[in-house]
Amino acid sequence: MASGHSQLSALLLLSIIAFSFFKPLEAAGIATYWGQHTDEGTLASACATGNYQFVNIAFLTTFGNGQTPVLNLAGHCDPASTCSSLSSDIQACQNQGVKVFLSLGGAVGSYSLSSTQDAQQVADYLWNNFLGGQSSSRPLGAAVLDGIDFDIESGSGQFWPDLARAFAAYSSQKKVYLSAAPQCPIPDAHLDSAIQTGLFDYVWVQFYNNGQCEYGANADALLARWNQWTQVNSNQIFLGLPAATGAAGSGYMPPDVLTSTVLPSIKSSPKYGGVMLWDRFFDQQNGYSAAIKNSV
Questions:
Q1: Model confidence, pTM
Q2: CB-based burial label for 104 (10 Å; 0-12, 13-18, 19+)
């Protein structure tokens, strides 16, 4: 018969194994975008609200296909000289547990990838200038961002999977979190093949500017499409919404509808990650994140 000591060891081992299998995912939260409105306040003040778990710095609007990368932060700073003053803001956010990503693309920009090699060159540039690598010309200063957001809304869907794979390879040195911001129609015209790699930690789906799958007279179309999105190969899916009526052409959902009708329905999904709001400026105007924070 086994001694009491070895039985205890076996029980301890079993409980450790069980815990590793049932380790809970991080709590749900709110993601937002910052950088496209001069009067939205500082990045540090956005994080200081305590409302956000993720902030995407928007946008790197020009890159790929041999182009010199261009950061567009709409008057917050002049990337042509330097935006290194943002370094302390990024670190302040991270010290509060907020993950800070650089968002690639946007609705207006000049970006594309011409080959697998081109994707690798873009990844190398981003690793050295924004992530864990080394460069003498880091546009946002010494701060190391947590990840890269793919907000690809033009061009083809080609070679974005290669870019994701290149970041995944760099993650062996320091984890590079990946997020994607597809439109709600399935499949997304630009990001479908990239998301299918399964390399994206977070997918915040834009449930706006698309009548077929946004909130309108009711939430039926949105909920039906949400259920489809939860089948994609990603750890966490976020419900992306405009933070005010002026933030998008259509798809605004009043906060009380979200908290009373929609969140109770979607939170049962094991892949539910939270809510993404476009963007910090409109959220500040409308108080959307503050209104929903305790329900997310």
A1: 0.91
A2: buried
